[in-house]
Amino acid sequence: MPEPTRLLLWTDTPAPYGDAIRAAGLGPRVVIETLARKDTPSEAQMAQTEALLAWAAPAGLLPRMPRLRWAQALTAGVESWLALPDLPPSLTLTCARGTHGDSMPENILGGIFHITKGYAAMAEAQTFSAWKRRVATPLSGKVLGILGLGAIGAEVARLAAALRMEVIGTRRTPSPMPHVSEVLPPERTDEVLARADFVVLLLPATPETEGFINAERLAQMKPDAWLLNFGRGQAILDADLIAALTEKRIGGAILDVFREEPLPSSHPFWTTPGLMVLPHIGGMHPERDSVVAQLFTENLASFLDGRKLREVVDPARGY
What we know:
This protein has helices at 15-23, 43-48, 79-82, 103-117, 119-126, 151-162, 189-195, 215-218, 238-246, 288-305; strands at 5-10, 30-35, 51-54, 70-73, 92-94, 143-147, 166-170, 182-184, 198-201, 226-229, 252-255, 275-277.
């Protein structure tokens, strides 16, 4: 019988992952070690670990792990991993793509409801015992533009279609999708921007998407359209968005992701008119670790059996 595989769970919440491994009957095939996120692997752990579950890894660490063959990132975005100057080319990196399927689409729709239904303003009026009637904007017939029609975008489209919204969007490899009236290539982004009442960004962090939403593209949007970014903060040029909002050239923006997180208290986004700052809540939910654990355990079984893993990252594409 082969020696058990050495596995390091580098997270503050290892219990759901250990439970999932045991429930899948993989316990006897691995030796599990756990490590708090703030700590650094010991020399023994670096020497022995063959499979790693982690949020990220600092530069200089992975080359010191000679037996490491697979790393499972706890996030869908892996730009911090791919930015490592010493990421071993032989390392298989997988991400948590697809584990935000419930929470993020609901949070995106929540943002659109916030824009159109005025509940926040009514709650504020209640603190002053002020009876101020407001007329909610119907969503039926509104156009939702999604830049980045992946798994999350597909679910947002399904929910939006139930509200009788028209959904259009872009995808690297355009092909017909349920609940989406038009799927266009990225080269036709301006057509989406010009037609959409709400533009949702679900773009990964790649060289092609760096500063993708700039002054030129913001100028293509309707004067009353809203921009919602739940993808990556690098997709927006901050100064260009601040100028567009300050000059009221678009209706407003809701941002859940930023170039620097936590967003510094000195950042002008906090005081930009028409902009709502969300503290990166899009994909989080109380059972997220259990959902990621299912993906991780499936990949662990494949890794132990020498089979192909799910959600393998392509460094050339950046996701």
